[in-house]
User: Which sequence fits this backbone?
């Protein structure tokens, strides 16, 4: 099946700094990528939808200036958490899909962000 | 609008006994439904999907689910639990456009069910 990778798998940053998370589709061209966050013992919440070459669409309540998403190529999307605060600590998961798999998303392994 | 409700937050079974994880859905249109599994600190793996074909869907690792429109349910079952099945399971529905014409590509996740398998 299709493979999606995320980097880094874990990151610790200080409050006020920014951190970038990469999501890559390794063996297919991802026309659409999604970013989720998951708090401990909770479900996944969609943050934004990212289409290659266009601006991301954010879900209600998600600050677009705080969570910057770039989808510059068909294999890479990045999420930058700007001016991170401890409450941004979470598990961030990306997924990707293409026109041939509109019913299915392929998920990355996730990135554990801890803000101290 | 579409939604899914997982009826149990935690299910505990003994190894070798059947597994039943319950999910009810709400949708104005024929839904696309999925079950995903998440092992600790890992990404999600697709177990199976229903997209309006056969109502009994077989997935990986011996799991299957039956789409029952009359009950608006999509319960996940497995005849015999294995220790490696211990994980978090999510019932998921695909979001359709308001006119029901096609999927948006977005997914809505249930709250999850933690499956514990006792030796």
Assistant:
């Amino acid at each position: 099946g299709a493979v999606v990778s995320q980097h880094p798998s874990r990151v610790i940053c200080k409050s006020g700094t920014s951190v970038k998370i990469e999501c890559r589709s390794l063996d297919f061209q991802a026309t659409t990528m999604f970013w989720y966050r998951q708090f401990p013992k909770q479900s996944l919440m969609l943050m934004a939808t990212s289409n290659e070459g266009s601006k991301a669409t954010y879900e209600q309540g998600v600050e677009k200036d705080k969570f910057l998403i770039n989808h510059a190529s068909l294999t890479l999307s990045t999420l930058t958490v700007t001016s991170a605060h401890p409450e941004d600590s979470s598990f961030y998961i990306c997924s990707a899909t293409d026109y041939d798999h509109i019913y299915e998303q392929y998920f990355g392994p996730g990135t554990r962000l801890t803000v101290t | 609008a579409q939604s899914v409700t997982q009826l149990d937050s935690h299910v505990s079974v003994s190894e070798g006994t059947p597994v039943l994880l319950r999910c009810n859905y709400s949708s104005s249109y024929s839904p696309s439904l999925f079950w995903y599994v998440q092992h600790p600190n890992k990404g999600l793996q697709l177990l199976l999907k229903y997209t309006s074909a056969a109502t009994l869907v077989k997935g990986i690792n011996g799991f299957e689910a039956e789409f029952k429109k009359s009950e608006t349910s999509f319960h996940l079952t497995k005849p015999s639990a294995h220790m490696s099945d211990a994980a978090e399971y999510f019932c998921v529905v695909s979001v359709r456009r308001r006119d029901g014409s096609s999927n948006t590509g977005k997914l809505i996740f249930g709250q999850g069910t933690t499956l514990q398998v006792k030796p």
